[in-house]
Amino acid sequence: MAGKKQFDMDAALDAAMIQFWRVGYADTSVGDLSRVTGLNRSSIYSSLGDKDALFLRCLDRYAARYGHKYDAALSGAASDPLASVRAFFDVTLKRIADPEVPDGCLITQTAMAIPVLSPAVAAHARQALGFQRLRLRAALKAGRMADRDAEDFAVHAAAVNQSLAVMSRAGAGPAQLLAVVDVTVDALSQALRAA
Question: Which pTM value belongs to this model?
């Protein structure tokens, strides 16, 4: 349409997501979002919503982008649960090693900021965090692990996965992160043999 400025919605959402991921929700201003997206404030509000609405869209975008990768990694759990859990952690390790994205995990840092978030954003963060446990639990059950053990290991593996994000943000190197994964996968291997 003549006179109406067009923009790439995906590029704007990716830029906003990276901004939130890099510095967090509380430390990102609408001015920051304007700078990284190239949109003025009124365009942000009219096209992307207020800061909470935009953040929720970015959180969903992040969860979908990596959620598909986690689901693919865990898809073979019925035949090889151990390799699937290792592949699950590989998704995180590859994301951490990717120089194109910030260190850490947008969902993890959002969860750590829950006390200062609006109730809607806090609830969304809790839900996003819970999806990881649910997908791990389903994979472990598909690998014939008993309900209680599957739940316990899913909670543990999700916690380890989130800790990898925190450790990477604090400067832990690839060897340290891999050692954490190795201990977790070894414990799962022992549990699967015992079952």
Answer: 0.89
Question: What is the full DSSP assignment across the chain?
Answer: -TTPPP--HHHHHHHHHHHHHHH-STT--HHHHHHHHT--HHHHHHHT-SHHHHHHHHHHHHHHHHHHHHHHHHTTTTT-HHHHHHHHHHHHHHHHH-TTS-SS-HHHHHHHTGGGS-HHHHHHHHHHHHHHHHHHHHHHHHTT--HHHHHHHHHHHHHHHHHHHHHHHTT--HHHHHHHHHHHHHHHHHHHHH-
Compute the C-alpha angle 68/177/110, nearest 5°: 55
pLDDT of the chain along its 195 residues, tens only?
444 556 789 999 999 999 999 999 999 999 999 999 999 999 899 988 899 999 999 999 999 999 999 999 999 999 999 999 999 999 999 999 999 999 899 999 999 999 999 999 999 999 999 999 999 999 999 999 999 999 999 999 999 999 999 999 999 999 999 999 999 999 999 998 887
